[in-house]
Design a protein that fits this description.
The chain has helices spanning 5-21, 45-56, 88-102, 156-167; strands at 32-39, 61-64, 79-86, 111-113, 119-123, 145-151. The chain is an alpha+beta fold. Strands 2-3-1-6-5-4 form a 6-stranded antiparallel sheet. A hairpin with a 5-residue loop joins strand 4 (111-113) and strand 5 (119-123). Helix 1 crosses helix 4.
């Protein structure tokens, strides 16, 4: 079951977190601001771009190298990765897709919380997304992805409660 954006904000996240945090004002409840999706894939650019367009329905932003690094065989101005930022209704549609279809297939060791209480999820192969299944022939290579979910609170324990409520997964 996928939630609409308004239903998610008013019913699902707020009612569970109000009871757990003992807060009277609903504006004190933390919320998820954005999700950044990064794909580093330099060997075949078109496959990675096509896969991201299938999953998210829009074109990814190209990230170019700022400096040349000889040991990595990287030149200034060459494409290093692709980035998509999701906010608002797109973000909550993606989070519902993530919690229902993708996280049950992943190992929990790929979910990490950093010092700024961002949640980072590493996906080894993007073929776990249901949008890719019918286009399996065109994307033959395994493409990895990093998902960074940013909340507006700096307290790690409160953000863990928020992510447990929204993603319905166990975070260490």
């Amino acid at each position: 079951m996928t939630y609409s954006y308004n239903h998610f904000k008013t019913n699902v996240a707020s009612s569970n977190l109000i009871s757990k945090l003992n807060v009277n004002n609903s504006y004190l409840i933390p919320s998820i601001i954005k999700a950044d999706i990064n794909v580093n894939y330099r060997t075949n650019i078109t496959k990675a771009l096509y896969a991201l367009q299938l999953i998210f329905g829009r074109k990814a932003k190209l990230i170019k190298a700022k400096k040349s690094v000889a040991s990595f065989n990287l030149r200034e101005g060459s494409i290093t990765s692709y980035k998509i930022s999701l906010r608002g209704e797109e973000l909550h549609n993606f989070i519902s897709l993530l919690s229902m279809h993708i996280l049950p297939k992943l190992d929990k060791k790929f979910i990490n919380v950093d010092r700024k209480s961002n949640i980072n999820i590493g996906i080894n192969d993007i073929k776990v997304f249901p949008q890719i299944e019918h286009e399996y022939d065109r994307i033959s290579a395994s493409i990895g992805m990093n998902i960074s979910i940013v909340a507006n609170n700096n307290n790690i324990s409160i953000n863990k409660l928020l992510i447990k409520d929204t993603l319905k997964c166990i975070i260490k």
